[in-house]
Write a structure and sequence with these properties.
The complex is a heterodimer of chains A (427) and B (262). With 427 residues, chain A is mostly helical. The radius of gyration of chain A is 22 Å and the shape is globular. Chain A is built from 20 helices and no strands. The longest helix of chain A is centred in the middle third of the chain and has 31 residues, at 264-294. Chain A has helices at residues 2-15, 20-35, 41-49, 58-71, 74-86, 92-105, 111-129, 133-144, 154-163, 167-196, 206-232, 237-255, 264-294, 297-307, 312-326, 332-349, 354-369, 376-385, 389-412, 414-424. In chain B, helix 1 (2-33) runs antiparallel to helix 3, helix 3 packs parallel to helix 6 (156-178) and helix 4 (88-130) packs antiparallel against helix 6. Chain B is mostly helical. Chain B has helices at 2-33, 37-43, 51-73, 88-130, 150-154, 156-178, 201-204, 244-248, 252-261. The chains are: A mainly alpha (427), B mainly alpha (262). At the A-B interface, helix 1, helix 2, helix 3, helix 4 and helix 7 of A face helix 1, helix 3, helix 4 and helix 7 of B.
Chain lengths: 427, 262
């Protein structure tokens, strides 16, 4: 009963178009004022203590790092390196785009950031080379989604916060699925390019490859700092995020000198406002899940679903459908923060691995980012290419289908995600 | 006066971002430098155990004031599938409702938080400073590492929320007067002002939560008569040919909107 009131109210408030954070907060307040005895003042305190966790602070740091990398010329050098490596195969620049997206994803924690960083450079170049615009947009929109699967990843941090899973284990678990998905997207690109005989680049000489590698090395080192640092225990994930922000600042301003020092305040401001927006959703989502937990709603749902005797297979199918549907209305952080506390207890009761479940959610979010009506990647790509959303939706189809196929594999093959963290002993 | 407040807000959150990053960086560096015998003499005596706590406090302050800034710039994401299909008048009503709901929530939180802060030490501190403190007042707890009074730390909630409430009302009044929402990006990508030299960088400065992304309500000034359109996202479905200008950066209109926003 209480559950249906809470969810009903939340749904109605969200549909009025007010910010998600506000609708979460108002739901909680309404419920507290009218139906329970929880002292309302604890709410005010919870608004502060809700995000008083050091792990959450990785989010602003990764956003800041990502913004420095995007502006600092790291993406451009990664693209040059990628083109020198794979540009001579079928698909040429497009294939290089997939590789560059995967590389950039390994230093940035966000999908739209990856689309912006790689897409704004490679898409104009592809059009110039004679690729159809829709082909390039399709490749980059979907490959950009690797940003949240290959560590670091903001969505994984959100999931870790919502479910108390280890950020380090999730990051490691994302590595193999990320590489597999990058390979599959590349394969799709290669096949389409081969069929249509799209332009290829001349094969780069070994010297050329070496030169582009040396130029890109500063950016590539960041992968070592973040993933290596977390794995060896040199840094906690949050510290690694802070280190990568400082490192990204140094290479953008002093090594590559692509960014003038006076551009820094603007980047600080835009990173701060983006992080604040996400942190505000987190605060209110924490409040929301606090109320849910207080009413024992997740447990009740878990008991109910387990009582239905679904089994893990059917449950995962339902989760996928639910998350894909949610992807039509909300952006990933909100979905993870609202859904994870509800679905997680069920998954635990059914014996699903918490890390595997996290990766499954992340892949679902990736698919959601690439199709309308809400798909951040799609809108970013539309901003870069000036293509309409309908046109883009058609353009991403081949890669989107690949991703859905990959999603099924991730759902029913836990080993794909948890083998690496298990082997490395981080979980 | 308002301009001063605007700038203060921007400077505060940008400063907090930079400061928190530097603090964690220095703390980590110190931890490892202290492990090197040769450097130990210089940095070994420093104690950075408070760094995490300070970082958290700074980011919470940043989150509260940044959220207020976000209301002014319109980046808070919502669900717009339903309301963007309504006709103008209805949509206008819903937008006003949403803004007032935001003001209500933040106003309530500001009041609750203010009360909480007052009871947990602010009352004592102020009265003590004035020399009229009674015995029955509660001095309030202090934080774990920095040993700051928590009421100072927690006053981010009432202050930030009050500012946010004010911003919601400000946006609401602006919307009723002009039909405009502070939602930028009307079809182009904003460039860094100094970036006219690099053809590529202009396209990169996208805050994707500011785009027309199906996460924000459409306002009335820029989207007149677009509501009630049954087709999905009718507003962006007109494919535009990329002109050479789009790739060259330094889009002049970008600066115009940037200016007019200020």
């Amino acid at each position: 009963m209480n559950a249906s009131i809470i969810f009903g109210l939340l749904l109605i408030l969200m549909l009025t178009g007010m910010p998600i954070s506000i609708s979460l907060g108002l739901t909680v307040l309404t419920f507290l004022f009218t139906m329970t005895q929880v002292p309302v003042e604890s709410v005010a305190l919870k608004l502060f203590t809700g995000i008083e966790k050091f792990e959450i602070m990785a989010i602003p740091f990764f956003i800041l790092a990502g913004n420095f990398l995007t502006h600092g010329g790291v993406a451009r050098r990664m693209i040059n390196f990628a083109s020198a490596m794979v540009g001579h195969w079928h698909g040429g620049l497009a294939l290089a785009g997939v590789l560059a997206c995967a590389l950039f994803a390994a230093v940035s924690g966000s999908s739209p950031a990856t689309v912006v960083a790689i897409g704004s450079i490679i898409l104009p170049a592809m059009v110039k080379q004679g690729f159809p615009r829709s082909f390039g947009a399709g490749v980059i929109t979907t490959s950009g989604a690797l940003g949240i699967l290959i560590p670091p990843s903001l969505v994984m941090v959100m999931y870790a916060v919502a479910t108390n899973t280890s950020v380090g284990a999730l990051f490691m678990a994302g590595v193999i699925p990320g590489l597999v998905l990058a390979f599959l997207l590349g394969l799709t690109t290669w096949a389409i390019a081969k069929k249509n005989n799209y332009p290829r680049l001349p094969k780069a000489s070994a010297a050329e490859r070496m030169r582009t590698f040396r130029e890109a090395i500063w950016g590539l080192l960041l992968i070592v700092i973040v993933i290596g640092g977390i794995y060896t225990g040199v840094f906690t994930p949050t510290e690694a995020a802070a280190m990568s922000a400082v490192y990204a600042f140094i290479i953008a301003v002093f090594v590559y000198k692509d960014m003038p020092l006076r551009g820094v305040p603007k980047i600080l401001l835009s990173s701060a406002s983006m992080s604040a927006m996400l942190l505000y959703i987190i605060t209110n989502a924490v409040l929301f899940s606090f109320v849910l937990a207080n009413e024992n709603i997740p447990q009740a749902i878990a008991d109910w679903i387990v009582g239905m005797d679904f089994g893990a297979v059917a449950f995962l199918l339902v989760v996928n459908v639910l998350l894909l549907a949610a992807g039509n209305f909300m952006e990933p952080s909100s979905i993870v923060l609202i859904m994870a506390p509800i679905l997680f207890p069920v998954a635990m009761k059914l014996g699903i691995d918490p890390v595997h479940f996290g990766i499954l959610m992340v892949v679902n979010m990736e698919v959601g980012m690439c199709h309308p009506p809400v798909g951040l990647n799609l809108y970013v790509a539309s901003g870069i290419t000036k293509m309409g959303i309908t046109e883009l939706t058609v353009a991403v189809m081949p890669w989107l289908l690949t991703m859905v196929g990959f999603l099924i594999a991730v759902s029913y093959w836990p080993g794909l995600s948890i083998w690496l963290p298990k082997t490395l002993g981080v979980m | 006066m308002l301009k001063v407040l605007d700038h203060l807000e921007e400077w505060l959150i940008a400063f907090l971002m930079a400061a928190a990053t530097s603090i964690i960086f220095v703390a980590v560096m110190q931890r490892y430098a202290a492990g090197v015998p040769f450097l130990y003499d210089y940095v070994g005596h420093l104690n950075f155990s408070w760094a995490q706590e300070l970082c958290i406090i700074m980011f919470v302050w940043m989150a509260k004031f940044g959220a207020a800034y976000g209301v002014r710039t319109g980046i808070h994401v919502g669900v717009d599938v339903l309301i963007n299909r309504l006709e103008d008048r209805m949509r206008g009503k819903f937008i006003v409702f949403g803004l007032l709901a935001g003001a209500l929530f933040t106003g309530t939180v500001a009041t609750l938080g203010g009360h909480f802060v007052w009871e947990n030490g602010a009352h004592y501190a102020f009265f003590n400073a004035l020399g009229i403190a009674g015995d029955e007042l509660f001095e309030g707890p202090i934080t774990a590492d920095l040993e700051w009074p928590t009421w100072i730390v927690y006053s981010a909630i009432p202050l930030g929320s009050a500012l946010m409430c004010f911003r919601f009302l400000q946006v609401c009044v602006g919307f009723i007067r002009t039909g405009e929402l502070p939602h930028h990006d009307h079809g182009h990508v904003e460039g860094l002002e100094e970036d006219t030299t690099d053809p590529q960088r202009a396209a990169q400065d996208i805050n994707w939560f500011e785009m027309e992304d199906g996460l924000h309500p459409k306002d009335l000034a820029h989207h007149k008569g677009e509501g009630g359109d049954p087709s999905l996202d009718g507003r962006i479905d007109t494919p535009k040919e990329p002109t050479p200008d789009d790739w060259e950066g330094g889009d002049a209109s970008a600066k115009v909107t940037e200016e007019s926003r200020k």
